[in-house]
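On clarity, I found the account of how folds are encoded harder to follow than it need be. For illustration, here is how one protein appears when written out as sequence plus structure tokens.
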Amino acid sequence: MPALKEKAVRRVRREGGRIVGQDLLLAERGERIRDVKVAPDGSILVLTDGPKARLLRLTRAR
């Protein structure tokens, strides 16, 4: 989910319907996050805001 104030994407880990952990992703970029979607291939698409707006694709490290 986007975290506009934190300028990051918040990854929420769940087990059995309970939240068991959270991580902030992309906070070091300092860009406002406008939208987050999951692509058909399982990657995460992140749209940033501002004059240098970008579409980022996050994939799992192998």
